[in-house]
Amino acid sequence: MLGLDGGSMFGLIPRVVWSKTVPTDSQGRISVGHNCLLLENSAGEHILIEAGSGNKLDAKMRAILSLGDRTVVEAVGEVAPIKSVTHVLVTHLHFDHAGGLTRLACEGEEPDWIHPTTGLGVVRSFGDAEIIVQHREWRDAVVNNSVMTRTYLLENLDPLRAHLRTVDSPLPFPVGHQPGRDEPPASTVHERMTEVLPGIFVFLVPGHTWGQQAVLFTDDQGRTVVFTPDVMPTLNHLGAAYSLAYDVEPYTTMVSKRWFLAAAAENDWLLVLDHEVKTPVVRVRPDGKGWYLLVPEV
Question: What is the value of pTM for the model shown?
Answer without folding.
Answer: 0.97
